[in-house]
Each structure stands twice: as structure tokens, then as C-alpha cells.
Amino acid sequence: MANIIYTKFFERLSTGNLDFDDAGTVVRCMLERSTSTYSPNKDHDFVSDLASFVEVSVASYARVTVGTKAVNIDDANDRVELDCADISFGALESGQTVDAIILYLQTGGDDSSASDDPLVCYIETATGLPAVLGGGTFTITIDAEGLIQFAQA
Fold first, then answer.
1. 130 cis-preceded (ω within 30 degrees of 0)
2. pLDDT at residue 137 above 60?
3. Which of 34, 59, 62, 101 is least surrounded by CB atoms within 10 angstroms?
């Protein structure tokens, strides 16, 4: 499987219902465990659609909020880049393997209602993935060219 951007995210961008780099837009990240049998599908809409998704479950793991979001114009490459800071989960105990990350938009102020949290993207080819947790700080390094790129043909 490759990285995907979920269709619901495109819809929100296209209809003006999302300002990616606005301070009020809460983008969250969760880690997919290697035992997961989730089949990424760009037509999944919400976190509740992630059937067979197995999340990392070591004791110190918790989903994190993505920081320092930005929308950048790259005129030289004729594209728009959605960017964010590297995503750090702090020290995670050993014993599990991270296969991929999923980013989503948190609505309602917390993660208690997965049926209203729209999916953003599924990434399995970030630097360092898959990754065996070894007890140290676990960080997803975001490409220098941005998290997501929209290019003109």
C-alpha cells in the first residue's frame, strides 16, 4: 500500500470548510501497530471507519496534536504544500512495531467521538517507518517539502 489522502479531507479543503493552518484546526496523529489488518481506503471518511485498525498500545502511548501547521506556496515546483512540525510521541516502551501513521481532524474538543473526526491521510513511507519501538523518543520526521503536496500538471 502507498500513502493516501482521504477524499473527505479534499472535500473539506475544496468547499472552504477547512483552514489547515488556523490555530482552531486541530490535527491529530495516531500510530498503526504492525498487527493491524486495516486496508487503507481513500473513501473512508471518519476515524470510526477504520475497521480492523490496531493502534499502538504501549503504556505511555497517546495520540498527539500536530504542531506548527503551515500552507506554503512553492512557485518553482508549481505546487501548494501543507506542512507541519515533526511529530513526537515522547518515549514509548519497546515491544511493538509502528507500520504507519494516520492524521485526522479532531472535532468537539477531544477524541471521544470517532464518528465525527474526519480523516486526513495515511502515511506508511515516512522516514523511519516501519519502526520498532525501543524505549526511546519516537518521532515522525516530516519531509522538508511538506506533509502533503498538491501539484499542477
1. yes
2. yes
3. 59
List the one residue out of 101, 105, 100, 97 whose CA is nearest residue 131.
97
Cα 93 to chain centroid, rounded:
21
The pLDDT value given to residue 1:
57
CA distance 66 to 115: 20
Highest mean pLDDT pick, 20-29, 49-58, 119-128: 49-58
pLDDT mean over 72-90: 91
* 24 C-beta neighbours (distance < 10 Å), count: 5
The CA-CA-CA angle for residues 26, 31, 34, to 5°, reads: 160
Indicate the pTM of the whole model.
0.90
DSSP single-letter state for residue 147: S
What is the per-residue DSSP string for 26-38?
EEEEEEEETT---
